[in-house]
Write a structure and sequence with these properties.
The complex is a heterodimer of chains A (about 650) and B (about 300). Chain A starts with a helix and ends with a strand. The longest helix of chain A has 15 residues, at about 1-15. With about 650 residues, chain A is mainly beta. In chain A, strand 14 (about 290-305) and strand 15 form a beta hairpin. In chain A, the strands form 5 sheets. Chain A has a 22-stranded antiparallel barrel. Chain A has a 5-stranded mixed sheet with strand order 1-6-7-4-5. Chain B has about 300 residues and is α/β, with parallel strands linked by helices. Chain B is about 40% helix and about 20% strand. Chain B has 13 helices and 12 strands. In chain B, the strands form 2 sheets. A 7-stranded mixed sheet of chain B has the order 7-6-8-9-10-11-12, sandwiched between helices. In chain B, helix 3 (about 45-60) links the parallel strand 1 and strand 2 (about 65-70). Chain B starts with 6 loop residues before the first helix and ends with a strand. At the A-B interface, helix 2, helix 3, strand 8, strand 15 and strand 36 of A face helix 1, helix 2, helix 3, helix 9 and helix 10 of B.
């Protein structure tokens, strides 16, 4: 309470302080536009466009799903050094920091270590691990400065993106060479022995455009004076315009990581990794036709601290997708496509032997204009998986725009998550004292399913105000859980399809441009997931009501952004998350209940631009009031598997362009 | 071992050292030849300023140029310029032009990056206009879209003169121009709906009484829904959903202003230098929109387009 009351005072001071400034945001009304907004300013406006939700560009108010867009400027002003730190302030998104290099992101529930229910794309290329189905955010291939925008789709959307788009999609779009326009250098140094340096270059010559990026990143763990691992990343991209209607592009990159504790799990203990993630991608466009081929390869050595053993793995993914967008008559805009994905993994400490899988998919979506105020978007995707065979993911969205800048949305969709390689082929045997612990995969698993119903309202109101409201009801089926059987001296753990569940919730988003120099935002999220029957694995902590508490039921974010005429900028962001409760097993099959208290994080950033905006120096403080807290339970029965308490981090940053 | 709050401050000297690697602009001492005033710290004005400097540097002459942004206290800005005693002022943008004309009416002035600089009625000035001449704009439309016969516009009293110029230019090119005058942007949806059935293409005009950000977005979406091609005001409009847009090359406008400045510094009176239109015009084209609307483009003309979105 003491910290919150201090915060209230701080926000009151900032809101009331008579500062002058210039906020580079658009005026809202015609009346506001003629006051100080010249005709020349109309030529310099940027009109926002969204790519993801319908796989074609359209204004964000017209998107057929709950979408939040975070711009490069918002990322820069936040001071965040990881994408999860940016996503923490998006309604409906759960972010859990387990350690300095291990952050988990979920949408509308089910966030946990090795969360596998979220699809993450970079320029259309999926970046989740085929072994675990999760996203390793610390080995992300792109420096933060290279991101043009992040689009968060908070609805199941397998109908377009396939399996793993179970709870939503995070689409990261990088800057084009033209947007980079020259050389950009960013240097950060701060507490916890944090050093980050990045270099970007973008240029054009005739029909060829090109960009390069490189970054080095080092930091210590949150609560220990130990390195959390070094990460180096480099990327290149070339685009050649064959003619105005055709282009080819080639891009690639590598992430090298060393001494990385990227995840901890009760089954395995702490795992330290060293290795490389490579990708190579080719794109071809001709009118409405797009072809993309990419190869992704991970080669890593793993050291299991608990077992004192080491092993390596190699995983290769080759993905090919073709898509064609065309109009049929006056009312229909269609997108059709097919996808082929080949995954191969060498035998390693997690799985029994080498495996490969071939996955196929077809998808089709139609946007139908039903008069001036109504639109219907309907589509579906068929996916074939070698173990679970075929899945069909349909989706339908009805959009109604009764008046300009107000849109209502009604959606229904079904999505699937295929079992990961680990869930299918896991084989690990551990001998701990008198107990032999056997962990095994299950090739008969059904895919996890979600049926989602959603109502949304999006409006651009007067005086630079936008309002968004979303309400959802989800039905979850065949959720994959761990199942432990005790047959002394063996303890056998495998994966099974657990009980079904249902969830309700919603998000409320408000953005207000108060003045030219001050803008405010606030959002609130609610989610509640309930098992439909008694859970034999006792994942339901609230046994009386069967309500799950693994993700916070309530979250809210508030923030203020300031920009002044003299080059000063400031950001103040507050995030509050409700308590969580977990049931965590140990190697003997015992289960214990762990609680994580509610916590508050306040982040602040102050920056100063000079040399005619060619350079900026800034001070960023993560967790300004040092609310030292856990976001995942610390180990109790398993002392070597422990999350770290999140503390405060202070960074000085210099950004230059030339 | 606990780390103190001052630990990151130890790294500050490294960052400051790196700052020193970038040469700072030397402080002006004594008379400055040209004071450049920028209306805002945005890329278009910076590009124009860079173009101006390129021309000055390529002349081989020693000309001292000092740059100022129009922000903060205007009195202190005027005092700084008074101390500089420039022989010439270059104003980029309407706010800078108005400030220069009001504060230093006797100093020779070159205005640039302004749509209607003639409205200043400055006797000691010349200019490079930002507005693309009507005939040049319609000529490019004719070239790219040979099937277009009727062009529509929505304008207000502020842009009525521009409408008349476009009607006249259209007449000489065999294009019919249909216009609807409105009082404010609130009337745009109805006006657009009324005019759309009569026209092949909608031409936007830089008029803040007609267009503001939300109405621009509305127009682009409505136009796409109604299969109506739109000519926008700048490249960002094309990216957002207009079929094509014309935009002056800002760097080249700065170069044109530089050429005028050199003549004035040689003793020519500004009033003797004929005002100029933009020499280079950038055209942007959205092929996704073209395909969506089923528009046939002149392929030879498309090759000359500066930027294509697909």
């Amino acid at each position: 309470m003491k910290k919150i009351s201090f915060l209230v005072i701080l926000i009151a001071i900032i809101s009331g302080y008579p500062l002058s400034g210039l906020q580079a945001e658009e005026p809202v009304t015609g009346e506001a536009a003629t006051a100080g907004f010249s005709a020349e300013d109309l030529l310099f406006l940027e009109v926002p466009v969204v790519v993801s939700a319908a796989r074609k560009e359209q204004p964000v108010t017209e998107a057929p799903a709950a979408v939040t867009v975070i711009s490069a400027e918002e990322i820069r002003q936040s001071g965040a050094r990881t994408i999860p730190d940016v996503l923490q302030f998006v309604s409906g998104v759960d972010v859990m920091t387990i350690s300095a290099r291990d952050q988990q992101v979920g949408i509308r529930g089910f966030n946990r270590p090795l969360n596998n229910k979220l699809l993450v794309l970079i320029d259309g290329r999926s970046v989740y691990s085929d072994i675990f189905g999760n996203v390793n955010w610390s080995t992300f291939p792109v420096p933060m400065e290279e991101i043009a925008r992040v689009e968060v789709i908070k609805s199941p959307i397998s109908s377009l993106y396939g399996a793993n788009a179970y709870s939503g999609v995070i689409n990261i779009i990088t800057k084009t060479p033209k947007e980079i326009d020259g050389t950009r250098v960013n240097l950060s140094a701060g507490s916890r022995e944090t050093y980050v340096g990045s270099l970007l270059y973008g240029g054009e010559g005739g029909r060829l455009s090109y960009k390069l990026s490189a970054e080095f990143d080092r930091t210590d763990e949150w609560d220990r004076d130990e390195g959390a691992g070094d990460i180096a990343r480099g990327n290149f991209a070339l685009t050649y315009d064959i003619d105005p209607d055709q282009s080819v592009a080639l891009s690639g990159g590598r992430v090298h990581f060393d001494d990385l504790d990227t995840f901890t799990h009760e089954l395995f203990g702490t795992v330290r990794q060293k290795g490389n993630l490579d990708y190579l991608q080719g794109d071809y466009r001709h009118g409405g036709f797009k072809l993309r081929v990419f190869r992704k390869a991970e080669e890593a050595d793993h050291r299991f601290i608990r077992r004192g053993t080491a092993d390596g793995w190699q995983v290769e993914t080759i993905d090919t997708e073709a898509q064609y967008a065309f109009d049929l008559g006056e009312r229909h805009s269609l997108v059709a496509g097919l996808n082929y994905r080949h995954i191969s993994v060498d035998d390693n400490i997690f799985i029994d032997r080498s495996h490969s899988q071939n996955l196929y998919a077809l998808f089709l979506e139609d946007e139908i204009r039903l008069g001036k105020k109504w639109r219907l978007i309907a589509g579906g995707r068929y996916d074939h998986h070698p173990l679970v065979k075929g899945n069909f993911s349909p989706r339908a969205t009805l959009l109604y725009t009764p008046v300009e800048n107000h849109t209502f949305r009604l959606s229904a969709s079904r999505a699937y998550r295929n079992p990961s390689l680990l869930e299918s082929y896991l084989e690990i045997t551990d001998v701990v004292g008198p107990i032999t612990s056997i962990s095994a995969g299950n090739r008969d698993l059904d895919p996890e399913g979600i049926t989602s119903y959603e109502i949304g309202y999006q409006a651009a109101l007067a005086k630079r105000t936008t309002l968004g409201v979303n309400l959802f009801y989800n039905e979850y089926s065949d959720l994959v859980i761990g199942s432990t059987t005790i047959a002394p001296p063996n303890v056998i753990t495998t994966f099974v399809n657990g009980p079904d569940a249902w969830g309700i919730g919603g998000e409320l988003d408000l953005n207000v441009g108060v003045t030219d120099w001050l803008s405010l935002f606030a959002n609130y999220s609610y989610q509640r997931i309930t098992d439909e029957e008694d859970n034999p694995i006792t994942l339901t902590v609230d046994e009386k009501n069967r309500v799950r508490h693994e993700t916070p039921q309530h979250k809210f974010n508030v923030g203020a952004r300031l920009r002044f005429d003299n080059g000063l900028t400031a950001n103040l962001l507050l995030h509050w998350a409700d308590r969580t409760e977990w049931v965590i097993p140990d190697l003997s099959g015992n289960e214990y209940r762990a609680e994580v208290d509610p916590y508050t994080i306040v982040n602040g950033r102050v920056g100063y631009s000079f040399l005619k905006d060619r350079a900026e120096v800034s001070l960023y403080i993560y967790n300004l009031f040092k609310d030292r807290h856990f976001e995942y339970p610390p180990g109790i029965n398993l002392p070597d598997v422990s999350s770290d308490p999140v503390g405060r981090k202070i960074l000085l940053n210099l950004n230059c362009r030339f | 071992m606990k780390k103190s709050l001052t630990e990151p401050m130890r790294k500050l000297p490294i960052i400051l050292f790196i700052c020193l690697l970038f040469p700072a602009r030397p402080a002006a001492a004594g008379q400055v030849d040209v004071s450049v005033l920028l209306s805002a710290e945005i890329a278009p004005y910076r590009q124009a300023s860079e173009g101006f400097r390129e021309t000055v540097e390529q002349s081989g002459r020693t000309i001292r140029v000092e740059e100022h942004f129009l922000k903060g206290n205007r009195e202190s800005l005027q005092q700084r310029i008074d101390r500089e005693k420039p022989r010439l002022l270059l104003a980029l943008g309407p706010e800078a032009a108005q400030f220069a004309h009001a504060s230093l009416p006797d100093t020779p002035l070159v205005v640039s990056m302004m749509l209607r600089p003639q409205s200043l009625e400055a006797r000691n000035a010349t200019w490079v206009c930002l507005e693309i001449p009507a005939r040049a704009r319609l000529g490019k439309i004719r070239q790219l879209l040979p099937g277009v016969r009727t062009i529509g516009m929505v304008f207000s009293a502020d842009s009525a003169a521009l409408y008349r110029e476009i009607v006249q230019a259209g007449g000489s090119l065999g294009l019919r121009v249909v216009g609807l005058q409105i009082e404010s942007g609130k009337d745009l949806p109805e006006a657009f709906a009324g005019i759309a059935p009569q026209i092949d293409l909608f031409l936007m005009v830089p008029d803040t009484k007609v267009f503001f950000p939300q109405s621009i977005q509305y127009l682009l979406v409505e136009a796409l829904k109604n299969r109506m091609p739109v000519v926008g005001l700048a490249t960002s409009y094309t990216r957002a959903g207009a079929l094509l847009s014309f935009e002056a090359d800002y760097r080249n406008i700065g170069r044109q202003a530089g050429e005028m400045a050199l003549r004035i510094l040689d003793g020519v009176k500004p009033a003797s230098i004929k005002p100029a239109d933009p020499r280079e015009i950038r055209t942007s084209l959205n092929l996704v929109v073209a395909e969506r609307l089923g528009i046939r483009l002149n392929e030879e003309a498309v090759l000359e387009v500066s930027e294509v979105f697909r």
